[in-house]
Amino acid sequence: MELPAPLRLGVNGLLEKVPLPALKQAAKTLSERYRAELRDGRLHMGEEMAVKAYLATRLPATYAAVRACLDALAEARPGFQPKSLLDIGAGPGTMLWATTDLWPDLERAVLVEASAAVRKVGQSLAAGATAARTEWLAGDATIDLDGIAPADLVSAAYVLDEIAPASLPKLVDRLWRLTGDTLLIVEPGTPAGWQRIIAARSQLIEAGAHVLAPCPHEAPCPLVPPDWCHFSRRVARSRLHRLAKDADVPWEDEKFIYLAASRQPAPARAARVIAPPKTGSGKVVVKLCRPDGSAGEQLFSKRDGDVFKTARRVDWGDTLG
Ligand SMILES: C[S@@+](CC[C@H](N)C(=O)[O-])C[C@H]1O[C@@H](n2cnc3c(N)ncnc32)[C@H](O)[C@@H]1O
Fold first, then answer.
1. Which of 162, 186, 235, 256 to mutate to test ligand 1, by most ligand atoms within 8 A of the CB atom?
2. Which site in 56, 70, 121, 146 is 20 to 30 Å from 14, CA atoms measured?
3. Whether residue 92 has pLDDT greater than 90
4. How far is residue 261's CA from residue 244's CA, in Å, rounded to a whole number?
């Protein structure tokens, strides 16, 4: 999943004259801060060079992950056409771009972002690029969401990991109250990201939410640590990305986990593929999370006829059945 062409061009323009040593240093610092899930009272993207490092090394991956989550959400609720979006921790506008790519008729978007540096970049990238009336709000999502109107789609992508764990239940509660229809939360596909999603999932189910994706049920998550639920998208690395990270491989696998929860139930629930399928001659083993709340590997062989043909084609993250 590539960035939409106007976004890619805008990003390239912003990165054109950036000195490589400074970009490399900023990318290294950013990566270390993310890996450590550092919460030291400073925003990871508080400064211009950190924002540029994010554009070069993180945006293509978070865009691909967010876009894949929106596809899963749309597949679970085929008629859903949000008119309004409220995105928390908007960064450079990743969710806005992904949402308007899928639903070009989006009419209004409110983007809440604490960092002035990234807000400025997001605003300039999106200027004139979307038909939606777009408003960028400065503020801390843990304290400043009062007075914001509910939206059809509310989202928070790669944000919960930057917020103090003690503040998360209240934030999730506020996001749900602001959700007119569906709430999407995306997190890094790490065990810690999964734990945050699991906690939000329980809280939302308790509040009456219906899980649209990835789980095809509202029973407790059947996975037991050290196993954890996550998905992956392969993302091409630009030349600048490779230079900034001293990376040889022209791609990377972005691991992510998400939860789409709605006020409306999903019309039908199919099992979800929760690991890369293992293919052999005349057989495939698929790890599934099932509508009955169970999870486990299932063997499909030629003897299963059409079901085998379908199972052989599914990928990690797809639905089956
Ligand atoms: C990793 S970035 C993700 C950006 C974007 N959502 C994406 O998926 O690419 C997290 C963003 O959340 C913002 N953020 C972190 N804590 C916040 C808070 N309490 N209130 C508002 N924004 C916050 C950060 O400044 C940063 O821009």
1. 162
2. 70
3. yes
4. 37
pTM over 0.85: yes
User: Which residues lie with the beta carbon below 6 Å from any ligand 1 atom?
Assistant: 43, 45, 62, 66, 89-91, 94-95, 112-115, 118, 140-142, 157-159, 162-163
> CA-to-CA distance for 65 and 76, rounded, in angstroms?
17
* Residue nearest atom 1 in ligand 1 by C-alpha distance: 158
Q: Distance from the CA of 147 to the center of ligand 1, in angstroms?
A: 20
Cβ neighbours around 69 below 10 Å, total: 27
* Spatial contact of 54 and 118, defined as CB atoms under 8 Å apart: yes
Give how far the C-alpha of residue 100 lies from the chain's centroid of Cα atoms, to the nearest Å: 15
| Residue 226: cis peptide before it, omega within 30 degrees of 0 | yes
Spacing, Cα 202 to ligand 1 middle (Å)? 23
Q: Which of 313, 215, 293 is nearest to 258 (CA)?
A: 215
- Give yes or no for a contact between 236 and 2, defined as CB atoms under 8 angstroms apart: yes
Q: What's the 276 CA to ligand 1 centre distance in angstroms?
A: 30
Task: Output the residue whose Cα is nearest ligand 1's atom 24.
Answer: 89
Supply 179's token pair.
């959700």
Q: For 33-42, 93-102, 250-259, 299-308, which range has the lowest pLDDT when averaged over its residues?
A: 33-42
Contact yes or no for 216/201 (Cβ under 8 A): no
Mean pLDDT (whole number) for 278-297: 96
CA distance 173 to 191: 22
Residues 198-229 have pLDDT tens digits of 999 999 999 999 999 999 999 999 999 999 99
